Amino acid sequence: MEKNNQNQNQNQKQPAPDRRQPSGRPGGKFPRSGFGIYWLYLLIAVFLIGILFYDGSGSLMKEVQYSDFQDYVRKGYVEKITVVSNENVAEVSLADDSVALYEVLGGAEGVKMYSRKPQVSVKIPSAEKLSDFIDENNASDANRKIDVNYEERQDFFNNFLWSFGPLLLLIFLWVFIMRRMSGPGVGGAGGIFSVGKAKAQVIDNESNQIKVTFADIAGLEEAKQEVQEIVDFLKNPQKYTDLGGKIPKGALLIGPPGTGKTLLAKAVAGEAKVPFFSMSGSDFVEMFVGVGASRVRDLFRQAKEKAPCIIFIDEIDAVGRARSKNPSFSSNDERENTLNQLLTEMDGFGSNSGVIILAATNRADMLDKALLRAGRFDRQINVDLPDVHGRYEIFQVHLRPLKLAPGLDVEFLAKQTPGFSGADIANVCNEAALIAARKGKKAVERQDFMDAVDRIIGGLERKNKITTEAEKRSIAIHEAGHASVSWLLQYADPLVKVTIVPRGKALGAAWYLPEERQLTTKEQMLDEMCALLGGRAAESVVLGKVSTGALNDLERASKMAYAMVVYYGMSDKLANVSYFDSQQPDMSFSKPFSEATAEIIDTEVKNIVEEQFARAKDIIASNREKHGKLADLLVENEVIYAEDVEKIFGKRPWASRIDEIISSNKAAKAEEASQKAADAGTSGAEASTGGQESPEEKKDAE
């Protein structure tokens, strides 16, 4: 009894199941009901078919041939005939005779089936022939005279079907199309009538849909600080309003692809304790006129109802592109109407207090100026490519789930990936893990990361590509020329390795460690150009002929020389003159210089390239023996590293800029740590003496 009472008490304490909660289905979705709209269609079809075959008499009729009908009449089985003259059909009532019923209806089963009103139907040639036949039969047998009635019937169902069937079919098709258009891609759950509703994903405090926080973001300290301040403003507004500050209306995240703009927005959604509306710029674009502006209005209406809140618009350039000054050229009225509505909602006559807008784009130069002004997007946060310190922190984040080999130098990986974004670094870590697994390793090693970087930059390694010994030798001379010239120039990028193993479309490559400079001088650009032309120069000096393998080198050197002359004003004849137009950077339609100036530009570019090519040839000629040793080593090993070049040419006398930055950063961190330790020691000493009296105080007390 006690056990049963305990069970009853436990059952009473358990709450009743909430019918609104999903019942154990994957993904937490509601179970689908067994009765759907298609079952309703099936029931309607069955009902219509039943009406079609229902004759209204409550009985079934057996259909017989006309010859059998004549035989039944002669045998006296027929009692009454009803002729439907407009259908050439006769309904025959059988005599109440067991023999007749058994023969005509097909035995006991047939009698049982048609027992309610034994009748048969027959298709007659015509009413006149049937009348003649019945008259003949009545004349031959006067005792068994058959009663014949003639009538015309109207099939109301068929008449209705042919009269209103096409209209009903059109209505059915219209309803079906409307239901199909109520999918996620067209108008949302409300169908075509809700196409103007905003399709924003709403993330509230209790959903916990986003697990990303600011702790998961590395290498973006400045941008993270700006966004954190917005989140803090929403959490503690009084801290700022007491000083007279106002909440910012919007922040625009600008930066190259893959630098973490959307990741920052996800972190805001994960950290902020306010509703978060997430949409893409393309969600406002629709084939119907006026839908974009309607969705903007609906989005801000929802946001005002849940204020304070945050609206995030990803890839805002899809809807915020600059409006055309010439209406007849490249005009898009629907997109411009959407942009106008967005401008009005962000800072119009109405009030949007408590609604903060975050937006992200990698094409800020294409945005409308009215969108970028203060009062709409008060802050423009640049999310640039990370430097070596940022890459180090990003590697620390993405290396957490990997099983790494002991002693892996993360600082080395950060140095080997200049120009990589956060997405690129994540791809490197994943690719390294795949390479290690492909090789059957138990942990990811340093070489796996190097192979991953090579794979991402150069493409897939193709060792089975067929090359002759002469071609292999020519490629080695070309790549050794790059390595030799870059090693002997002060401002050329430091060499990492040289390979003649084909990757992608390249037959060989020289891998450098680009100096991440904030400013570049003319001498640095000339050294880089000379290193690019080192391969063609080596071919010319050693082989006495040149090949097509220098196509990429010539392209890059020519573009660099053109930029020096046209953009940076670094030529002798066009010194301190720049023809760069930030509003039209590609100069597709018009050039801001005359034809005479264009000739001068061509001459200056050619002279710069020729000077650096001659300089590279002189370097190769002066170090031809060392260059030959390097080429032979490259042919033998196929891959050589900076250590191998150092053994032949000696150590470079110039320190790398990245090494200087890393060493200075370490010194700054060490000084900061020692300062914190000193401050902690001072505060600890004060705390330890805080409860004791000084000698003077003790003397005064006495």
TrEMBL record:
<dbReference type="GO" id="GO:0008270">
    <property type="term" value="F:zinc ion binding"/>
</dbReference>
<keyword id="KW-0645">Protease</keyword>
<dbReference type="Pfam" id="PF00004">
    <property type="entry name" value="AAA"/>
</dbReference>
<dbReference type="InterPro" id="IPR003960">
    <property type="entry name" value="ATPase_AAA_CS"/>
</dbReference>
<feature type="transmembrane region" description="Helical">
    <location>
        <begin position="160"/>
        <end position="177"/>
    </location>
</feature>
<comment type="function">
    <text>Acts as a processive, ATP-dependent zinc metallopeptidase for both cytoplasmic and membrane proteins. Plays a role in the quality control of integral membrane proteins.</text>
</comment>
<dbReference type="InterPro" id="IPR011546">
    <property type="entry name" value="Pept_M41_FtsH_extracell"/>
</dbReference>
<dbReference type="InterPro" id="IPR037219">
    <property type="entry name" value="Peptidase_M41-like"/>
</dbReference>
<dbReference type="GO" id="GO:0005886">
    <property type="term" value="C:plasma membrane"/>
</dbReference>
<feature type="compositionally biased region" description="Low complexity">
    <location>
        <begin position="1"/>
        <end position="14"/>
    </location>
</feature>
<keyword id="KW-1003">Cell membrane</keyword>
<dbReference type="GO" id="GO:0004222">
    <property type="term" value="F:metalloendopeptidase activity"/>
</dbReference>
<dbReference type="GO" id="GO:0006508">
    <property type="term" value="P:proteolysis"/>
</dbReference>
<comment type="similarity">
    <text>In the C-terminal section; belongs to the peptidase M41 family.</text>
</comment>
<keyword id="KW-0547">Nucleotide-binding</keyword>
<keyword id="KW-0378">Hydrolase</keyword>
<dbReference type="InterPro" id="IPR005936">
    <property type="entry name" value="FtsH"/>
</dbReference>
<feature type="binding site">
    <location>
        <position position="482"/>
    </location>
    <ligand>
        <name>Zn(2+)</name>
    </ligand>
</feature>
<feature type="compositionally biased region" description="Low complexity">
    <location>
        <begin position="675"/>
        <end position="691"/>
    </location>
</feature>
<dbReference type="InterPro" id="IPR003593">
    <property type="entry name" value="AAA+_ATPase"/>
</dbReference>
<keyword id="KW-0067">ATP-binding</keyword>
<feature type="region of interest" description="Disordered">
    <location>
        <begin position="666"/>
        <end position="702"/>
    </location>
</feature>
<dbReference type="InterPro" id="IPR050928">
    <property type="entry name" value="ATP-dep_Zn_Metalloprotease"/>
</dbReference>
<feature type="binding site">
    <location>
        <position position="478"/>
    </location>
    <ligand>
        <name>Zn(2+)</name>
    </ligand>
</feature>
<dbReference type="GO" id="GO:0004176">
    <property type="term" value="F:ATP-dependent peptidase activity"/>
</dbReference>
<dbReference type="Pfam" id="PF06480">
    <property type="entry name" value="FtsH_ext"/>
</dbReference>
<dbReference type="InterPro" id="IPR003959">
    <property type="entry name" value="ATPase_AAA_core"/>
</dbReference>
<keyword id="KW-0812">Transmembrane</keyword>
<comment type="similarity">
    <text>Belongs to the AAA ATPase family.</text>
</comment>
<keyword id="KW-0862">Zinc</keyword>
<dbReference type="Pfam" id="PF01434">
    <property type="entry name" value="Peptidase_M41"/>
</dbReference>
<comment type="subunit">
    <text>Homohexamer.</text>
</comment>
<feature type="transmembrane region" description="Helical">
    <location>
        <begin position="35"/>
        <end position="54"/>
    </location>
</feature>
<dbReference type="InterPro" id="IPR027417">
    <property type="entry name" value="P-loop_NTPase"/>
</dbReference>
<dbReference type="InterPro" id="IPR000642">
    <property type="entry name" value="Peptidase_M41"/>
</dbReference>
<dbReference type="Pfam" id="PF17862">
    <property type="entry name" value="AAA_lid_3"/>
</dbReference>
<dbReference type="GO" id="GO:0005524">
    <property type="term" value="F:ATP binding"/>
</dbReference>
<keyword id="KW-0482">Metalloprotease</keyword>
<dbReference type="GO" id="GO:0030163">
    <property type="term" value="P:protein catabolic process"/>
</dbReference>
<keyword id="KW-1133">Transmembrane helix</keyword>
<protein>
    <recommendedName>
        <fullName>ATP-dependent zinc metalloprotease FtsH</fullName>
        <ecNumber>3.4.24.-</ecNumber>
    </recommendedName>
</protein>
<dbReference type="GO" id="GO:0016887">
    <property type="term" value="F:ATP hydrolysis activity"/>
</dbReference>
